[in-house]
């Protein structure tokens, strides 16, 4: 099971469930996987920015990855391996690939500025993890401060046959998807998979611009999968109706910093995980914020019964 | 007419209307003012980040300000005077105050980092514009990269009696409003007006947290004014219903970089201004993007007839 | 008198002399010009980052420029016109060129990241100031955070015939000079003038790498001119001997933030200007720092008698 | 052997010696230690920014640390444990302390902005590594972009009894040392050790301002130790004479990015290490740059015979 450039559908960004005392909650890993499968996930991404990966010991990270691989047989598991140094990136990449991962996701370090620096970095990263390991480019300037033009992405894709996917979360980014698909249409770039992040805030239109699916952590993966499917079936209005119903909550979740706390809280309310706890240090959700999320859930339930908790 | 700490309601951030050849379109300034007044604006802000202020000659900036002052008699006009140097800030501030402006808005320059640097900068700015000129703190870390804690804002408020208002657009920022209102409640900070920006993306809850109103440029100022009013009247569900109906378009408009082009396009479609043109250099809206906005407008019109164009 | 790509020698970055109460000290402008001419300056740059330009009113800026133009007849005066908006850049550029300036210097705004953004910015700037106005690229990533590769500089040079000079202050930057001169040697870039900044910290080797001279504000312009001349004459060891004698003081001056205060203090001690005052807000030099500078001056005077004050 | 707040003298920042094929060169670790001891080092810092730590596997990092501990008996070994996550920081800190390290050095992550964020981060870091582990604050805004005021440093010192030392490399930073020593003098901050970095560029005056010594990687540790000693003995002019003789080379080494390549090259020429190789990816020194360093060494040798190679 290797990640390929034809990957599509929904790859949830999985949070790491913890118990209140900070241990990984293995039972919740199982219920979370069950929820993803029920939602129609076609893969999963672990150890992403939202996965609290930097708080995990190496053994924990590898064990967690293995549980997802075992729990989602036949589906590709992508592992975030971004690291300040290539030694750590290589170790983790080799270990998870040996364990059965489908590919790795690599974000550029914030210090990169020029086009050549970015292209050079991915060349070095591929050398570090091995040219046989499929990888995903994470393009997330809002958080990472690294700006990749479509031409830079094309250079990375063309230089590295092991590049299978772009995780697109530039903002604004709709034109970027159109430009990249235009490169493919004119034959100047080979096809790659494009899954979109950014909390799903533009998923409705991203699918229309040519995205292959979603890779984000919104606490209703069913909605993400449904919008992807409806758009693929050409049912545009239905896709937007469903998306719009969720947008008030999705928008609330998408706040940087506090977003993970919101997601875990909703997932707990929905029974995906037993506790909303984050391993220290983690942002706490105020009572006021919880009440706001409850209000949003109640309003959503009137339109999408799956939100009833 | 001086800006005071009891300001509330809707202060739209006004764009600057241009003709296709880059001249200021004075007729559109009139129709824009009429639209704001019809929407229930209680003031207006000109020469803000969205107002293309850096593209205006000093004479143009002063003339434009005067037109808003004359066109909205009895209502406070706030003028953005942020500048890389205090000489330009002082010149503009004195000129617009002489012309009848109610106060000025000052954003911190991006290089500021430490708490003391930020507090010190506002002390210098007040010395530059004059301690008799009411001013607004613009707290917009997403764009300006300057992070002000609530305690820093309190220091600025307490140090400078001429501070009348906070334009709040931190993200996430709901807890910040609660914290500042808590300072007031405990008596450690004098009351100030808090109007919220960020494209209105969290206006529904910001009002519940204690904001006094909105200061942003969404192309449906009626919605902003209505949400502010409904929340003030305690009609929470109605406020959220209206807000949610607009959220898909509002979210689309809120994209950094392309947002102004979307706003001007919608305002043109609505008859607020004659042309969506930006003075060079400006971002163009692709045909694809225009079609997306049209689609959003059509969907919105089904819920809010004012969106029918 | 137009700036050309054959400019060479010493273009001091001129500070703006103020009296203790913040007025421009016109008498000190005269003595400063006399000092520059005596040092062998082949041009001068005003309204640069060190010139406290953002503290000047537009009339003051234009008047100051005129005084340098009149005081240095036959020598090119370059004017810094970097501004957050093109309107201000254009106004100032046209005004100073009408007054007799030889060209303008344009720094990229800090938000620029990708290669295309930088190239596009200079295209817009040239459109703003006019394609007939010779301009200088300021490449100063340490302060401006914008990183231009040699290839990006080449694109700007080739796209814009009015580009006459690079003010080089990348750090480290020796290889960059060699690469650019290599472009010229291979015929892929037309010749331009390269003057170096960075406080002069690497002037000794920059000249050997192919720089045409110095554009910086070290308080001993005589040394800068001498090193440029000695290297041009092939007297390498003498150039380094002189440079090394000045390095302890030059290094002390080159500190960001406090550097201008040091320079003005030394210039005052040397009689170039009457007062070390900066217009508010300005960094003050502590008594301890003054004593350190005095100590450095005394030590320098033992090797270079011109340092005796 | 625990690091205490009375640490003083010279703690070189050790590079990691590699063979040409990228393996750690254990023989060169021995010769490097011998050179440090001969130079009068009173401690050493390993796995710092210059130590290529991110390229080391965890086992290699621990083994390297152990070799320094064993090779410098009775002297404190400080270990850089800065990491993007607290899990990795804790693992490394506990492992090296168990192995006999004297303390750890912790740099703030670049995203920190407000005073409270910085203070909060150190509280969390102390909780992660254990309050029993002596730690060093690394204050290096030029590279890390985090700006700590003296008051913030005081808060960290006062909040955390395990804080033993400040590695000072703010720039400019002389006033900062004076301010911190002033805090101690007035009794508002307990005494800590202050060692200075920044490549040694201001060591001459830093000692006069109250620093306890140097912690940097200049390839002539003898000079650093001598300047520290001469200043402690009140032999100011001699200290400056020696410092000034080295300044041209020290300045050349201090360039960000290429600095490590220069240092390793000089150390190789001096016989401290067998090869100047960096583990990939590493900056190469051009032939031209090597010739420049050779020239600087030859010139230095005329003043300090230890530079003869």
Automatic annotation (TrEMBL), chains A, B, C, D:
Pyruvate binds at residue 215. Its EC number is 4.3.3.7. The keyword Lyase applies. The keyword Cytoplasm does not apply. Keywords: Lyase. Belongs to the DapA family. This is 4-hydroxy-tetrahydrodipicolinate synthase. It comes from Methylopila capsulata.
């Amino acid at each position: 099971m290797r990640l390929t450039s034809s990957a599509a559908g929904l790859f949830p960004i999985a949070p790491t469930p913890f118990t209140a005392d900070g241990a990984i909650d293995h039972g919740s890993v199982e219920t979370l996987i069950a929820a993803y499968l029920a939602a129609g996930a076609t893969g999963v991404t672990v150890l992403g920015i939202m996965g609290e990966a930097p708080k995990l010991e190496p053994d924990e990270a590898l064990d967690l990855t293995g549980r997802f691989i075992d729990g989602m047989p036949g589906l590709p598991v992508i592992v975030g391996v971004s690291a300040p140094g290539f030694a750590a990136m290589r170790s983790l990449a080799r270990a998870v690939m040996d364990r059965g991962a489908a590919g790795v996701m690599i974000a550029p370090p914030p210090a990169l500025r020029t086009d050549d620096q970015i292209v050079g970095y991915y060349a070095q990263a591929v050398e570090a993890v091995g040219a046989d390991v499929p990888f995903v480019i994470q393009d997330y300037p809002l958080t990472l401060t690294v700006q990749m033009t479509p031409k830079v992405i094309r250079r990375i894709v063309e230089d590295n046959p092991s590049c299978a996917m772009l995780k697109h979360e530039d903002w604004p980014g709709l034109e970027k998807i159109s430009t990249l698909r235009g490169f493919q249409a004119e034959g100047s770039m080979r096809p790659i998979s494009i899954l979109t992040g950014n909390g799903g805030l533009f998923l409705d239109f991203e699918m229309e611009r040519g995205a292959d699916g979603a890779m984000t952590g919104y606490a209703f993966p069913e909605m993400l999968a449904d919008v992807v499917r409806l758009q693929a079936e050409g049912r545009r209005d239905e896709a937007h109706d469903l998306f719009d119903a969720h947008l008030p909550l999705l928008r609330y979740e998408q706040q940087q910093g506090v977003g993970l706390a919101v997601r875990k809280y909703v997932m707990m309310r929905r029974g995906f995980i037993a506790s909303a706890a984050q391993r220290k240090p983690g942002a706490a959700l105020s009572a006021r914020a919880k009440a706001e999320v409850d209000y949003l859930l109640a309003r959503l339930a009137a339109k999408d019964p799956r939100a009833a908790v």
